[in-house]
Write a structure and sequence with these properties.
4-stranded antiparallel β-sheet; globular; about 130 residues; mainly beta
Length: about 130
């Protein structure tokens, strides 16, 4: 059994910051590849960022580079997404996702990930 639980979403004004967290359980966390995705109403689920098992290899979508940072704490079985300089177009439900074992490359396609959290709403007002 694998469980992922997101937290940290909310309402923020444009230019503000939020930090999302995802707690994982049920598997050996350090060997997982983890990702953050988001989905706005009427749109496809979009890759935001990914991170490999040791946390030294990351990938960020072009739309969030320089603003969002993914990180992980294997001792706490958590993965975070620090979101700065938020824009209204960042408004979406944000999901964390995981797959085991850690992959050689970080997948961008949602279909590559096996486990998903329930999502947390992020709303950015103008």
């Amino acid at each position: 059994q694998v469980q992922l639980v997101e937290s940290g979403g909310g309402l923020v004004q444009a230019g503000g910051s939020l930090r999302l967290s995802c707690a994982a359980s049920g598997r050996t966390f350090s060997i997982s590849t983890l990702g953050w995705f988001r989905q706005a109403p009427g749109k496809e689920r979009e890759f935001v960022a990914g991170i490999k098992g040791r946390g030294t290899d990351t990938l960020h979508a072009d739309s969030v580079k320089g603003r969002f940072t993914i990180s992980r704490d294997n001792a706490k079985n958590m993965v975070d997404l620090q979101m700065n300089s938020l824009k209204p177009e960042d408004t979406a439900v944000y999901y964390c996702a995981a797959l085991w074992p850690s992959t050689l490359y970080i997948p961008r396609r949602s279909s590559e990930y096996t486990y998903w959290g329930q999502g947390t709403q992020v709303t950015v007002s103008s």
